[in-house]
Structure formats: structure tokens, C-alpha cells
Amino acid sequence: MFSSWEERNNPKMSKQILLILALTIVTGLLFASQMVKYAGFCFSGSYADISKNYPYTQKILEESDSPQSYLDKLFYDYFSVNPELGNFTLDIEHKTQATLSLAMALNREEIAFEYYGKETKAIYNLGCTVFIMDFSDMTVLQSYPINVTYIDLYNGEPEQQTIILTLKKLYSDFILQKLESNRKNIYIRSAGSLTIKVANVNFQEEALPFLGSYKTEPEIETYASIVAQHLTEALAFKMNLTVLPYSRSNLSYKMSLSFSDASIQNFTIPSASYDIDLNVKRFLKKLYKETAAERVDLYGVELEMRIYDAEFNQEYWKQTIQNGAAKQIAAGQKIGNEFYNYNEILLLTLSDKIPATLKEDKKLMKGILKKCANY
User: Fold this and answer.
1) 277 has which bridge partners?
2) DSSP string covering 87-147, please?
3) Do residues 175 and 107 make contact, with C-beta atoms less than 8 angstroms apart?
4) Which residues, listed in sequence order, are joined to residue 253 by a DSSP beta bridge?
5) How far apart are alpha carbons 212 and 34 in whole angstroms?
6) Angstrom distance (rounded) from CA 17 to CA 24
7) Among 58, 252, 257, 370, whose Cα sits 20 to 30 Å from the Cα of 163?
8) Do 122 and 94 contact (CB within 8 A), yes or no?
9) Could you tell me the pTM of the whole model?
10) Is 29 helix (H, G, I), strand (E, B) or coil?
11) How many Å apart are CA 14 and CA 5, to the nearest integer?
12) What is the dihedral of CA 64, 70, 71, 77, to 10 degrees?
């Protein structure tokens, strides 16, 4: 690098340039030093409950003859090639003394079947969450859920091995694809950033008949958890907020993560700065048009969302949100289970309509949500 005549003959200018270079190097080193250990793949819940809660994934783990299971290797290999996330780098080999860790946790494996004569429709629902934890005080700092739904049609009843192969595809293609598309949106909580979480999900009496197999206890709570996961995913990825996991209450509670080596770690989910209550009020279905060839129905949902400070019982935002979409079928075609149409419109509302509605409220964005933003 050659200095100009002015730089050589102007000591003050040279010092300024050196100072700028020094600051640039120091800033780069600070960002480069932000490391987070990779904790591996794990299961949400007790290790003893894995075979009950995740039976097919458990079969996948049992198939492996190597010390590293299929899913351990899948995510380890992925993060080894892609260690750079939003504002930190993963320490795959644990070469640093970082107390922050990232784990990939499975928290939902659900396969439902519908039967049409000799054909079987299988609906796969798979849910994983990227957790960022602090091992120094065993707390969960943030959660980034990743949810996938996949539908397949079989001649007759699918064999267990067919289901296992499909699940492998969902992990290797769908989960990893969604992880890759959102990888740069996974951040460590910014210094001074506040937190938000989904505290309660409720369904009004008018909505319960449309929930299919989830309309009675304890299935209602299971579905509430699914809904909370999807809303958490939207808030974290689409709005870049510091979101804590759904904890079924406004109080802090323990979350257990079970790793493949049978070790269990218990983490505390702290109380959030702001809480969200989601109240699903009703579902609607209305005929839009019908011809000799097709029928088009409009499916809709109405819900109420509330943002508040649970500790001080102060409400900041409350709004009724409505959303709908058309569903087209061939004339004479029978719908196997209406629940999936209502579920689809509800999940679309959580992923698209709610973030758009929140962003439109400039006062809410500036006064509350900006305080929970990651940078």
C-alpha cells in the first residue's frame, strides 16, 4: 500500500487513518469472537418418554450402527459446513470456553391417517426447535421453532419402514431446507433486548367442534402447544424478536432436553418481559361458488390477540384478527377431514396475517416490539 504525499507530510492525518484501521480491526475481532458451542441433537422431554412421544424417530436412531446416530450426524454435518448464523458462529468442536450453546431439539412427531376405500392418506407433522441456552445458569435464552407438514397418499396401509423413510426425507430435505432459509435470521439476544413469549392459547366453545381429534382434554392442550409453536416461529423468524418458548403459564418453569447419549439437562425458562395471549374465537365455512365441475368454499378464522406485562398486569395491545382463504374441490369430491382445512387457515393466520398486522401498528412496533428486537 502506497501513501499519498499528503499522508506522508501530515502526521495528524496519518494518526487518524491508523486510528480508523485500529477500530476496524478491533470491531472485526469483537464480532469474530462471538462464539456459541454446538450442543447437538436432542429430544424435548424425558429420555424415558422418547419411544412414546417420538416412536418413529426412535426407530431411526436404533438403525444406526455407528456411535453417531442418523440425526446427530445429519445436523452435525450441516452445522459443520454452515457454522455462521445471524450474529454468531457455532463452535462445533468445542474449542472455546463459551457458555452459550445451541441445540437442535425434536418436540413434535405426529402422523395421522385417513382412509378412503383402499387408499390411505398420511398427514405427517414434524416440529423441531433451535434452542439457545446459557449453561452458566442453565437458562433458555431464545427459541426458533421449525415446523413441517407433509401429506402422502398410499395404496393400503403404509408399512413401518415406509413411514421411517418418509420421516428421514422430512428431516434431511424439509427441516434442513427450512433451517437453511432461516439460518441467517437466528440471532443471539442483543444486549439490553427484552423478551416476549406466547403465554396462553385458548379456544372458545364455538371453536371447539372444528378441532377434530383435538376438541377434548388433554388433546386441546396439545393443539394449543402446536399453535403456540407456529406463532413463536413467526415472531422469531419473520419479526426478528427475542422469543422464549411457550411455557403454558406466565411463570418460569423447567424444560428438560434429552440427548442421544441418554444425558438429561434441565433448563429454566425465565419469565418474559411481555406475554401474548391468543384466543381462537371461531371458525367459519361459507360456500363461495358451485358449478357442475367444481365447488369453492371460503374457510375463515377469528381470533383475539393480546400483548401485556403479566407482572404488572398492564395491557399494551389487544385486537381481533380475521383471516380467510378459498378451498377448491372437484364436484362430488368428499373431504376426508374438515379439521385440516380449518387448521391450515389458522396456521396461515399465525405465519402471515399476525406479523403483517403487528407491523402495521407503528405505535406498537416502536413502543414495545422494538425493545424485543435482535440486531
Assistant:
1) 200, 306
2) S-EEETT--S---EEEEEEEEEEEEEEEEETTEEEEEEEEEEEEEEEETTTTEEEEEEEEE
3) no
4) 269
5) 46
6) 11
7) 257
8) no
9) 0.85
10) helix
11) 11
12) 140
Phi-psi region of 313 (alpha: psi -120 to 50; beta: other; left: phi over 0): left
Residue 237's identity, in one-letter code, is F
CA dihedral 146, 151, 157, 163 (to 10 degrees): -30
pLDDT at residue 46, rounded to an integer: 85
Antiparallel, parallel or unpaired: β 253-259 and 35-44:
antiparallel
CA distance 336 to 334: 6
**What does the buried/exposed string (b/e) look like for 48-86 if buried means 16 or more CB atoms within 10 Å of the residue's CB?**
eebeebbebbeebbeeeeeeebbbbebbbebbeeebebe
pLDDT < 70 positions in the chain: 1-33, 248-252, 333-336
CA dihedral 24, 29, 30, 32 (to 10 degrees): 120
Q: Residue type for 337, please?
A: N
**CA 318/CA 5 separation, integer angstroms:** 65
